[in-house]
Amino acid sequence: MKVLVTGFEPFGGESINPSWEAVRRLPDEMDGAAVVKRRLPVTFNGVREILPRLIVEERPDVVVLTGQAGGRPNVTVERVAINVMDSEKPDNDGFAPGDEPVFEGAPAAYFATLPVKAIVKALRDAKIPAGISNTAGTYVCNAAMFTALHTIAVAGMEARAGFIHVPFSHEQALDKPRPSMALETIKKAVEVAVRTSLRAR
């Protein structure tokens, strides 16, 4: 068994991204599965190029993508990714697409194949604030989730995949008040999500 877990590089003027800070602290093995940890660029073109290659090369059984959702007070497990890239805010390459598809000719949307409700329950049982989100937005996080699910579908793989958004870490909330969570709690949340996903197979 193998699980691919990803986090993102910093963006939006932040010096860290709690998603990657959590992912890189994960153990190298969980419940007998090897854990492959990778940092993704906050670029539309980057995730569409890197993720398919990673998934095809690694052949993971489970793919857990994570990203920062500044302003959200809890960990949110995404239910759906849509085939749209639309942002007035440029990515880290300076690219700001408007109403463009993630992939031409691909389906309008994909539902997460991770056990969304089971993950939320496990997080709450672990005393971590969590909920289901029905929109991953139209920025790079959504593009990454759509790319992973589309890659798996096209390749005919049986891997389960989905996306988890995490709040700002406390370190990012020092200068101005905004919802945040301890980095250790974020790391624990990602670990709970991974273990729950592995056990659901």
Using the coordinates above, name the CATH class: Alpha Beta
Query: Which percent bin holds the helix content?
Result: 25-40%
Average pLDDT, rounded to a whole number, is 97
Assign the CATH topology: Aminopeptidase
Major sheet: 7 strands, mixed
Q: Tell me the span between the first and last alpha carbons.
A: 10 Å
Helix/strand structural class: alpha/beta
Instruction: Return the string of H and E elements.
Output: EHEEHEEEEHEHEEEH
Strand proportion: 15-25%
Structure in a nutshell:
Pfam families: Peptidase_C15 (PF01470). This protein has helices at 18-23, 44-58, 116-125, 140-155, 183-199; strands at residues 2-8, 29-30, 33-40, 62-68, 75-78, 80-82, 109-111, 130-133, 160-166, 168-169, 180-181.
Q: How would you characterize this protein structure?
A:
The chain is of the alpha/beta class and 201 residues long. The protein has a single domain (2-199), classed as Peptidase C15, pyroglutamyl peptidase I-like (Aminopeptidase). It is 32% helix and 24% strand. It has helices at residues 18-23, 44-58, 116-125, 140-155, 183-199; strands spanning 2-8, 29-30, 33-40, 62-68, 75-78, 80-82, 109-111, 130-133, 160-166, 168-169, 180-181. The strands form three sheets. Strands 2-3-1-4-9-5-8 form a seven-stranded mixed β-sheet, with helices on both faces. A two-stranded antiparallel ribbon has the order 6-7. The chain has a two-stranded parallel ribbon with strand order 10-11. Strand 2 (29-30) and strand 3 (33-40) form a beta hairpin. Helix 2 (44-58) runs parallel beside helix 4 (140-155) and helix 3 packs across helix 5. It starts with a strand and ends with a helix. The active site is at 78, 141, 165. Removes 5-oxoproline from various penultimate amino acid residues except L-proline.
